[in-house]
């Protein structure tokens, strides 16, 4: 798969990144380099390899999975730039 300038422009728009027109060819080339590296990684045979979380054998520490509200929502919301009706208010980002 190859990324052309128009696709790079579209990706930059979707990522909300302003890219000058003269930088689009370089961005497309970087995307192509990344995709080439991913294709190299896909060539590695990992069929009998067990996933690992660390290079040393150790178990992850786990906590009990309990749903809570944190116990102090007023303190958490006091840090928010805009909070309404007990929730964080954020700008709409979906077109």
TrEMBL record:
Reaction equations catalysed: L-aspartyl-tRNA(Asn) + L-glutamine + ATP + H2O = L-asparaginyl-tRNA(Asn) + L-glutamate + ADP + phosphate + 2 H(+); L-glutamyl-tRNA(Gln) + L-glutamine + ATP + H2O = L-glutaminyl-tRNA(Gln) + L-glutamate + ADP + phosphate + H(+)
EC annotation from Swiss-Prot or TrEMBL: 6.3.5.-
Source domain of life: Bacteria
Top class in the EC scheme: ligase
Record has Transferase as a keyword: no
Recorded family membership: Belongs to the GatC family.
Function: Allows the formation of correctly charged Asn-tRNA(Asn) or Gln-tRNA(Gln) through the transamidation of misacylated Asp-tRNA(Asn) or Glu-tRNA(Gln) in organisms which lack either or both of asparaginyl-tRNA or glutaminyl-tRNA synthetases. The reaction takes place in the presence of glutamine and ATP through an activated phospho-Asp-tRNA(Asn) or phospho-Glu-tRNA(Gln).
Protein name: Aspartyl/glutamyl-tRNA(Asn/Gln) amidotransferase subunit C
Species name: Sinisalibacter lacisalsi
Classification of source organism: Bacteria, Pseudomonadati, Pseudomonadota, Alphaproteobacteria, Rhodobacterales
